[in-house]
Amino acid sequence: MPLSTSSTTPQLFYADGSPYARICRMALREGGLISQVREQVTALRDPAAAVLRHSPVGRVPTLVLGDGTTLTETTLILRWLDESGSKPALLPRDAQGLAAYGRALGLLDGVAFWNRELRRPEAERSASVLSYEENRADRIADALEQDVANGAYADIDAATLALAAALGYAERRHTVWKWRTNRPQLEQWFTRISERAAFAETVPPPSGI
Ligand SMILES: N[C@@H](CCC(=O)N[C@@H](CS)C(=O)NCC(=O)O)C(=O)O
Q1: Pseudo-torsion of CA 95, 99, 101, 102, nearest 10°?
Q2: Which residues of the chain fall below pLDDT 50?
Q3: Is 14:50 a contact under the CB 8 Å cutoff?
Q4: Which of 24, 52, 124, 179 is the most exposed place for a label (fewest CB within 10 A)?
Q5: From the CA of 31, how far away is ligand 1's center (Å)?
Q6: How far is the CA of 58 from the centre of ligand 1 (A)?
Q7: Ligand 1 in contact with 13 (CB < 6 A)?
Q8: Structure confidence at residue 102 (pLDDT)
Q9: pTM for the complete prediction?
Q10: Which residues are CB-contacts of 76 (< 8 A; sequence separation ≥ 6)?
Q11: What share of the chain is helix, strand, coil (3-state, %, to 5)?
Q12: How far, in Å, are 17, 23, 45 from residue 94 at the CA level?
């Protein structure tokens, strides 16, 4: 399916701290579609946020197509990129690839939830949520340490981009989690992926957490 002409260029709404939007931003670069989609920064959790003019969901990533159709959810946007000619294709087709993508997204969801709890005033934080999410992140990262040692997350696809976004988020916006400790394989993997232009061009600002 060819992409739209310039008057109807699709717009990808993102926030520079969002790891989900970063998956799509890296995907655009890795898949050769960056010149055909306009990236548009938006505020979040703000009634004046630009993205709210297109979607009541108000989250990023949000992809607004030339005809006004609006896609939310990272995986659905990756699917649209694949159908629009992303090379390489991003969404895995086999069960192993899907499992790897799900595992990386599970890590990202958990860490994002943990981070959200830390952004609440200290008196409102739940110690049990913090502890549960830290344990979940460690548990998944221990499994990922083995996966990477066994050769997983080697291709440029949704699984690899999601893992890069999750660890990149931990690195800059969730530094309370010391994910590198006792995980040399994951650390080496992260060093390698960090060298890619798609990664370097989308590094999020630090959050202070
Ligand atoms: N399940 C969504 C998650 C997206 C998400 O949580 N985005 C966050 C930024 S990292 C957001 O837009 N938060 C603003 C809000 O919740 O209003 C996806 O896969 O795209």
Answers
A1: 130
A2: 1-6
A3: no
A4: 124
A5: 22
A6: 8
A7: no
A8: 98
A9: 0.96
A10: none
A11: 55, 5, 40
A12: 31, 20, 37
Q: Burial letters for 8-24: b for 16+ Cβ neighbours within 10 Å, e otherwise?
A: eebbbbbbebbbbbbbb
- In this structure, are residues 201 and 27 in contact, taking their beta carbons and an 8 Å threshold? no
Contact 63, 114 (CB under 8 A): no
- Answer whether 59 contacts ligand 1 (Cβ < 6 A): yes
Structure tokens belonging to residue 30: 């890795």
- The count of other CB atoms within 10 Å of the CB of residue 142 is 13
Which pLDDT does position 6 carry in this prediction? 46
| Cα of 169 from ligand 1 centre, angstroms | 13
CA of 59 to the centre of ligand 1 (A): 5
Cα 204 to Cα 21: distance, rounded to the nearest angstrom? 11
